[in-house]
Amino acid sequence: MVSTDPLNLILTRGFLECAQHRGFIPDQARKGHPQDKPKVERKVPYARGRFYKGADFDNFTHVRAAAPKWCLEVAGMHIHGTTHKQPPVVFQDEERRTLIPWDGIPYEIANWRTNTVHQDFHIKCLDALYSVPSHLCRPGQKVEVRVDSKLVRIYQRGQLIKTHPRQPVGGRSADVADCPPKVGPCWRGVS
Asked: Is the pLDDT of residue 100 over 50?
């Protein structure tokens, strides 16, 4: 996690990577201080009182289907108190052109974690084992790991030191070159 302690703000590295990729700057409020974002919070009672009140939803899927329609056709058609315009009109006329066009590919937010190097120069990540270079890492050392659906990337002090294909639970990805030279092939089943 990335944190700026004086304000107690916390953003995940995966979210920050997404923001950088999509070209936006997160503007977050302090954790536990909803008064920092009153314009956003003020809409919660509005939605609760207008969208949910008196509605009869069968299930959560029904709510998810009805919400966008209500937002566009009801809530979005009100005249905004500051701009004196309808929000969808402002978006189309002024804001849309400032956005980076979407490439049509959903962005996969990576999972970042910290792992400890084991005695056999492996780390355990999401119940699979991955080797790390013995000449760069010692047992007990902490490394940062970036996991997505296809790859596991291992970093030491911000530098990429190893990349493995993602393994299923119980799987293992080991590179013989990661084994200490004096020991030789040090993992069973790896040649």
From this structure: yes
Tokens of 97: 């052109």
The pLDDT score that the predictor gives to residue 1 is 43
E strand or H helix at 38, and its extent?
helix 38-41
Q: Does 43 have pLDDT greater than 80?
A: no
Can you give the pTM of this predicted structure? 0.65
Separation between Cα atoms, residue 83 and residue 104, nearest integer Å: 31
Instruction: Determine how many CB atoms are found less than 10 A away from the CB of residue 148.
Output: 13
- Name residues whose C-beta falls within 8 Å of residue 86's C-beta, 6 or more positions apart in sequence: 76, 77, 78, 79, 80
Alpha helix locations (H) across 74-156?
87-90
The one-character DSSP state at 43 is H
- Domain layout of the chain by residue ranges: 2-98, 111-178
